[in-house]
């Protein structure tokens, strides 16, 4: 047992129950994430990454019942035992979630600055005036130079990259112990992707949060995470420190993912840089 774990998942198995049928989508998944560290969950579409995150958080897809067994300890909470309000409270204090497209989690009819301050109101951490000041300050901290005027825009008036900046700012607002990025840059151009990942890294340094980064892109996980697990068909096929997984992949599936990382400089580099080597700077 990892006594300094922010997240400990043991033998997690998730079965989708639907129209009288059962289908196992996550099987026997075990891993732990040490406080302050980052873990990439990598795998192709359908590997079970989203179902794993849903199972950890206890957030089931609409119209679908999930049977989740095993154990999940998140920031000291026994997540599979928590229900309703208790679970929502645990999530609100311990987890900041960044979705692929924050438009889905932003209210289209509310100005972005107000949405950020709403989150603060929900967390009950500040007066209205203080919230407004912090909202603008926060927009500045995630790269909005004209934060005062930009805070009055609606979500659809922002670019994908700007919206993701708001998404990161909102997720980090209460300085949660764990930030979870579910394909946070998949919808973005490569240059914007880099800036958003840099911001995520800086935010993590500022808040001291640990990070789970879900991505189909092994290259992104290799550059941004301390550790990696590779999933296929609901199971973990490879897990380890980033340098081990990249330099000496044990599973043929990991090798095929490595080989498919596009390179501008011809043949695949012998190895990718790891965070410890300054790839994040
Ligand atoms: N709402 C749902 N109802 C029933 N089965 C689902 C549902 N969502 C996903 N599944 C199934 O669960 C399995 C794992 O899917 P999951 O969405 O977790 O994969 P993923 O790795 O997150 O893929 P992607 O990157 O495409 O999101 C797949 O076989 C998928 O068909």
Automatic annotation (TrEMBL):
It comes from Agreia pratensis. This is ABC-type dipeptide/oligopeptide/nickel transport system, ATPase component. It is a peripheral membrane protein. InterPro entries: AAA+_ATPase, ABC_Ni/Peptide_Import, ABC_transporter-like_ATP-bd, ABC_transporter-like_CS, Oligopep_ABC_C, P-loop_NTPase. One of its GO terms (cellular component) is plasma membrane. Keywords: ATP-binding, Cell inner membrane, Cell membrane, Membrane, Nucleotide-binding, Translocase, Transport. Belongs to the ABC transporter superfamily. It is found in: Cell membrane. PANTHER family: ATPASE AAA-TYPE CORE DOMAIN-CONTAINING PROTEIN, OLIGOPEPTIDE TRANSPORT ATP-BINDING PROTEIN APPD. GO terms for molecular function: ATP binding; ATP hydrolysis activity. Residues 7-258 form the ABC transporter domain. The keyword ATP-binding applies. CDD domains: ABC_NikE_OppD_transporters. SUPFAM superfamilies: P-loop containing nucleoside triphosphate hydrolases. One of its GO terms (biological process) is peptide transport. It comes from the Bacteria. Its main location: membrane.
């Amino acid at each position: 047992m990892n006594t300094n774990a922010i997240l400990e998942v043991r033998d997690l198995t998730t079965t989708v129950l639907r129209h009288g049928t059962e289908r196992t989508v996550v099987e026997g998944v075990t891993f732990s994430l040490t406080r302050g560290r980052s873990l990439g969950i990598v795998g192709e579409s359908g590997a079970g990454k989203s179902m794993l995150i849903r199972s950890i958080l206890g957030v089931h897809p609409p119209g679908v019942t999930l049977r989740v067994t095993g154990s999940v300890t998140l920031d000291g909470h026994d997540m599979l035992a928590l229900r309703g309000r208790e679970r929502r409270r645990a999530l609100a204090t311990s987890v900041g979630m960044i979705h692929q497209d924050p438009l889905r989690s932003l209210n289209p009819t509310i100005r972005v600055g107000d949405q950020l301050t709403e989150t603060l109101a929900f967390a009950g951490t500040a007066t209205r005036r203080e919230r407004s000041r912090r909202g603008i300050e926060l927009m500045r901290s995630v790269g909005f130079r004209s934060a005062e005027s930009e805070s009055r825009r609606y979500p659809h008036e922002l670019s994908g990259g700007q919206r993701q900046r708001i998404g990161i700012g909102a997720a980090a607002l209460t300085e949660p112990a764990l930030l979870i990025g579910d394909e946070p840059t998949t919808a973005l151009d490569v240059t914007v992707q880099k800036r958003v990942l840099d911001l995520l890294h800086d935010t993590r340094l500022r808040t001291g949060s640990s990070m789970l980064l879900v991505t189909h892109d092994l290259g992104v996980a290799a550059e941004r995470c301390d550790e990696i697990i590779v999933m296929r068909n609901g199971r973990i096929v490879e897990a380890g420190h980033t340098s081990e997984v990249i330099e000496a992949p044990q599973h043929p599936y990991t090798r095929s993912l490595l080989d498919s990382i596009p390179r501008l400089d011809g043949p695949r580099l012998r190895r990718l840089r790891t965070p410890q080597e300054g790839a994040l700077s």
